[in-house]
Design goal:
Layout (H helix, E strand, L loop, with lengths): L1 H19 L3 E3 L2 H25 L1 H6 L4 H16 L3 E3 L2 H22 L4
Helix pairs in contact: 1-2, 1-5, 2-4, 4-5
C-alpha cells in the first residue's frame, strides 16, 4: 500500500510542477500517473547502472553529479512517454530537483513513522 501512496504522491507533485515549470508538459493527470510508474521502473533498473558508471564523477563533484543522473532519468522517461514533453536538459534538471524536494517533503508528511 505504501508503494501505491508514493506513486500517487509522485504523480500529483509531478503534475503540479508541470503547471509551474513552462519547460515540462503533461497532456493530463493520466500522464502524471504513467510518469510516476515509469520513473519508478527507471529508478529501479537504470539509475543503479548510471550511478555505478557515474560514481567517479559523483565523488569528484561531492555528490552533485547525482543531480545530473536524475535529470537523465527524467529525459529517458520523456523519451518513453509520448504525452510528456521536456524542453531540454536544463528543464529536466530543474524538474528533477523540484520533484525530489517536494516529493520527499510530501512523503515525510504522509509517512507513518516506520
Amino acid at each position: 500500500m505504501n508503494l501505491i501512496i508514493r506513486l500517487f504522491v509522485t504523480a500529483i507533485v509531478a503534475y503540479l510542477l508541470t503547471k509551474i515549470l513552462p519547460g515540462v508538459h503533461f497532456e493530463g493527470f493520466s500522464t502524471a500517473i504513467i510518469f510516476a510508474i515509469v520513473l519508478g521502473v527507471l529508478n529501479l533498473i537504470v539509475k543503479p547502472v548510471l550511478s555505478l558508471f557515474g560514481l567517479p564523477l559523483t565523488i569528484i563533484t561531492l555528490g552533485l553529479f547525482a543531480l545530473v543522473i536524475n535529470a537523465i532519468i527524467i529525459l529517458i522517461a520523456d523519451y518513453f512517454i509520448d504525452s510528456m514533453t521536456v524542453n531540454g536538459f536544463w528543464w529536466a534538471f530543474i524538474f528533477s530537483i523540484a520533484l525530489s524536494l517536494v516529493t520527499s517533503l510530501a512523503n515525510s508528511m504522509f509517512s507513518d513513522g516506520d
